[in-house]
Structures are given as structure tokens and as C-alpha cells.
Amino acid sequence: MDFTSLPHGAFTLANVTVPACLVGQEGDLVRIDMGIEAGHIAPPGGVAVDMRGAMVLPCFTDMHTHLDKGHIWPRASNPDGTFMGALTTVRADHVNWSEDDLKARMGFSLQCAWAHGTKQIRTHLDSADGQYLRSWPVFSDLRETWTGRIELQAASLVSCEAYGTEEYPEIARTVAEHGGVLGMVTYPVPDIKERLLGHFATADAHGLDVDFHTDETMDASSETLRMIAETVLETGYQGRVVVGHCCSLSTQDEARALDTLDLCARAGLHVVSLPMCNLYLQDRGTGTPRRRGVTLVHEMRARGIPVSFASDNTRDPFYAYGDMDMVEVLREATRIAHLDHCETDWIKSFTLAPEAACGFGVSSLETGAPADLVIFRARDWTEFFARPQSDRIVLRGGEAIDRKLPDYSDLDNLWKTS
Predict the structure, then answer these.
(1) Which of 108, 146, 325, 378 has its CA 20 to 30 A from that of 405?
(2) Where do the Amidohydrolase domain residues begin and end (predicted)?
(3) pLDDT tens digits, residue range 239-292?
């Protein structure tokens, strides 16, 4: 099969491999014939192309990213690979985040995501210390520029200690004006419950969903996830609640951790795991790391808690690598969190689950869905995970896109610091 010469117009991808859960069938992978017509999946018809078992997936949703931090590594590398090293380095680099700098780096990441087959992205935007005045207008401009290619959402990123400051109400107002999500980083502080109550009340007043960076630490005493679930149950908050990272669960007493998950299930929380970044930062010291930093995704699934996976950071002090490629996330999450040898529908955690968590449009491989597809030579999961699938085809509206990645040299003019 020549992957470079798919027909135009109405045609059929004959003999393709797809996840059964995405076509309403039982089991793992199944073979079907998939018609493409007028930019949508259709009954088989037109020119038939024998795909010889090639795997087809819907385009991906990357629901937890940091486009504003992306690609600052050349001028702002992490000095020791730790979380605090990342935090202090990024804060020091904020002085360089001009409109032109943000547009160049964020646009570069979006080009990568487009080429790899992602169609929907939520990004967190550093918003404290006046940064909201710069980053949110740039985000809105990019969202308009990328309309029809990648649908974009943004969530504010402030620490829980930002609640009660003079600028917090202005940040919330800015988020609402730009149609965003009210985000917060939570960690143990003496009055964390009061700050959570205030944050949820602010979100409710503005009609906003919330998105938390939660317990991104190996410290078992960090239990803000539990407090978030309790606060949702106490207040009856009705918006979407996303909690990311949740690393400390993996170090807590099992009975306590599972009790917290029962609360999360009752509260209707949606968890997003960021295994590549957590593996990079957590349990880093002078010797060999003992712990992965990944949260309890299997135990969450067993309780009906929706679980997603996402890219997180890209070539910045929080994660030195990455390319906005959800295939890499899928491959690494499967290895790190042992998503194999268990349920057969984990692919939903990279497509349907993040779409629901963010309120994006729903992807599908069923008749009538947009033909926004990624096609791989791999015919089963072992072939899929064995290689990076760099020769994939991305279809948008049934037409193959130009998958050329931007060159890193395109950003060379940004590395002269202020």
C-alpha cells in the first residue's frame, strides 16, 4: 500500500483495523471497511483502497498542555531536573514572554500538534504577577488563527495562594472574558479549604469550569485532591472539575488513597494523568528513582472515574522533551502505567474521555462523524507501540494534510535573553 496516494472525493479505506470501542462493538481491535465522503465517515463506496490491516484512529485531544512555556529550554533549562528547579527557572524567564515570543513558541507547538494528528487542545496559561495581561490576548489571537484546524481552550494557572490577592478577581474576569477555564495549583497550606471554597464560588459566579494541578508531589501528606472532592460535594458545584497529576496518591496508605478515590467518584471529578512529565520530575535525587509518579489510574477506572492522559510540558524546565505528539503519550502511558494486559478501551482516555472532560466535540469512527483520522501502518498494538509511527497519515475532513514539522531553527532568534 502506498500511504502517499489516497484518493480524493468518495473512497473506501478497505480492510482497516480499528478499536472496537470506537465503532460500538465488543472486544479489542476489529477489521472493517470505512467509507469517506464529503469530509465525513460514510458507508463504503467509491474507489476502494486495500489498507492491508492499517490501523485507523480518530484525531486526538490533548487536554493538559502548557503552550506558553513550550520550547524555552534553550534559554531556560532546568539546572537539576527537580520540580523547584523548574518552577524558579520558569518564573525567571517570564521577563522574556513578550507578545512576539509567546506567539512564536505557542505557534510552533501548534504546528507540531497539527502535524501529529491532534485536533483539540487545552493549555494552561501562567497568569499571576500580571502575566494574564500578556498571555491571554495572545492565546485568543492564536485561537482565531487556528480556527478550523485545532480547537483551543485555555485555563488560568495560579497557585492556591493567589486567591485573596488584589489581582485574583482580575484574573478571573479575564478568564471569563476569553471564554476560559478557572485553574489553580493546589498544595497544603493552612487555609486551603477556605481558598478552595472561594475559588469554586468565583468560578460559579462567572459560570466557569475549573481545572486543578493537584498534589504534584511524592509527599503522602499532600491531600488536596481529597479536599477538592469534599468541596464539590459540600457546595454542589455543577461545572466540570478536572484534577491533574494527583501523584501523592501513589505514596499514601492504600486504604486512605482508595477512600479518597471513592470521594472523587461521588464528586464526579475527571482525572488527567501526565506520566511523561511526572516520570521526569518526581523522585528525582542523586541516585536511581524508585517511584514513577503516576497516579492510580486503574483504581480510578474501577470506580467509574473518567481518566485521560495528556502531553503536559514540552521542551521547558518542567519537561525537557516532548513534541506535542499524542502517539508518544499513548505509547509511554501504556508502558509506564501498564495499560496493556487489562481493559481493551484505554484508547478512550486519549480521545473520548478528554473531549468529555473539556466539553469539546466528540470524536468517533462511526458513520456520520467527521473524517478527522490518523492512519498507521501498524496492524495491531504491538506493532503500533514498537515504532514511533512517524510515517502516519493525518486526514482532516477526509483529505491528507501536509505533515511537515517546523524546524527548531525557526525559534533561534528567541534565545537572546533580556
Answers:
(1) 378
(2) 196-391
(3) 999 999 999 999 999 999 999 999 999 999 999 999 999 999 999 988 999 998
H helices of 98-223, in order, are 99-116, 132-145, 168-177, 192-206
CB 45 within 8 A of CB 10: yes
pLDDT at res. 1? 46
- 308-323 pLDDT, tens digit per residue, is 999 999 999 999 999 9
In whole angstroms, what is the distance from residue 342 CA to residue 90 CA? Answer: 39
For residues 313 and 157, what is the distance between their CA atoms, to the nearest angstrom?
A: 13
* DSSP state letters, 351-396: THHHHHHHTPPPP-SSTTSB--EEEES--SHHHHHHS--TT-EEEE
Residue segments in the chain with a per-residue pLDDT below the cut of 50? 1, 417-418
Whether residues 44 and 111 fall in one domain: no
What is the domain range of residue 387? 11-58+363-400
Catalytic residue among 216, 223, 230, 355: 216
pLDDT at 2: 54
Of the candidates 399, 103, 362, 416, the residue with the CA atom closest to the CA atom of residue 111: 103
Question: Could you tell me how far CA 139 lies from the centroid of its own chain?
Answer: 17
pTM of the predicted structure, to 2 decimals: 0.97
Q: Report the pLDDT value the prediction gives residue 362, as an integer from 0 to 100.
A: 87
Domain count, the chain: 2
279 with 395, same domain: the answer is no
Cα distance between residue 161 and residue 198, in whole Å:
12
Q: Same domain, yes or no, for 236 and 310?
A: yes
The answer to whether 177 is a known catalytic residue is no
What's residue 285's pLDDT? 87
CATH of the domain at 127: 3.20.20.140
Q: Are residues 305 and 374 in the same domain?
A: no
Give Rg (Cα) of the chain: 21
Predicted confidence at residue 3, as pLDDT, reads: 53
Q: Are strands 118-126 and 151-157 parallel, antiparallel or unpaired?
A: parallel
Q: How far apart are CA 27 and CA 133, in angstroms?
A: 49
Is the same domain home to 251 and 368?
no
pLDDT at position 416 is 67
